[in-house]
Structures are given as structure tokens and as C-alpha cells.
Amino acid sequence: MPSPLGAPPTYSTSATLGLALLAMVAALWHFTLGALDYVGSGRYPGLALLLLSGLLLVYGVLILIRYAEARDAMGDPQPRSAMYETPHEGRVPLVGLGLAGLLVLGDLAFALSGELPLWHAGGLLLALLLGRQAWRLRPVPGED
């Protein structure tokens, strides 16, 4: 069942903005750690963290764009239509949850191997916060 006419779009909430900003901060944090690990622990593990943080940065920027579009659409003089009821609204938090899970695994691996353990513990905290925020945004089955 679609949301009632005039209801705010899913992407226009402050939780979505929080997810986008948290994703970008976590991406920059992990990109820096990936660059340091590239030099310290080896080429391929550091490169994997660099690539994963690049994906997370793209994810955060795209969500921020969707947030801005949704906020702009709320000011349209015409009423909202069902165009906001898209399948990807349910998949976006799942992608964030998957990226956060991969970051958690990477941070645990680097912290346990002794490569910048305190910095990777901070990255682990950011990844867990990102996963929690994405989990809160996912649609609950049967809530339609």
C-alpha cells in the first residue's frame, strides 16, 4: 500500500541525512587508514580498504543527493505522486548494512594483526554506527 498523498518522502528524513553524513565520514576515515595500511602492512590489504572506502563514499554522496532531491520535491506546488514508492528505497539501507559489515571485518582484521589498532578501533566504532543507522532505516516487512 503506497504512503498517503502528502506524506514526506522516505529520503527526506533526518535519519537519511545522518546515514549519508556518517557514510562519508566513515569513508574518509577508512580511506586514510587504507592509505596508511597500504604503506605499512602491504599493497593488497591496504588497497582493499581503499576500494571499500571509495564505494562507501559514493554511497554516502548518492544518499545525500537523494536527500536533497526529496527535500526539494517537498516544496513542489503539485501534490506528491506514487513516484517515490520505488523498490530501491528498501535496498539502500541493505547496501549500507553490507558495506558496514565489510568495514567491520576489515577493521577487526587490521586491529588484530597489530596495524594501527587504536585507529582501526575508531574505524570499527564508525562502521558499527553506520550499520546501526542503516538497520534503523530498513523497511520492516508487513509495515506497508
Account of the 3D structure:
With 144 residues, the protein is mainly α. The protein has 4 helices and no strands. The chain has helices at residues 14-40, 43-73, 88-112, 117-137. Helix 2 (43-73) packs antiparallel against helix 3 and helix 3 (88-112) packs antiparallel against helix 4.
Task: Give the helix tally.
Answer: 4
Low-confidence parts lasting 5 or more residues at pLDDT below 50?
none
Helix content: over 70%
Query: Mean pLDDT, as a whole number?
Result: 84
Give the radius of gyration: 18 Å
What is the helix/strand order? HHHH
Shape: elongated
Strands, count: 0
Overall structural class, as computed from helix and strand content, comes to: mainly alpha
**End-to-end separation:** 6 Å
Main sheet characteristics:
none
Q: Proportion of β residues?
A: under 5%
What is the fold's blueprint, element by element?
Blueprint: H1 14-40, H2 43-73, H3 88-112, H4 117-137
Question: What tags apply to this protein structure?
Answer:
mainly alpha; 144 residues
Entry summary:
The protein has 144 residues and is an all-alpha fold. The protein is 72% helix and 0% strand. The model has no long low-confidence stretch (mean pLDDT 84).
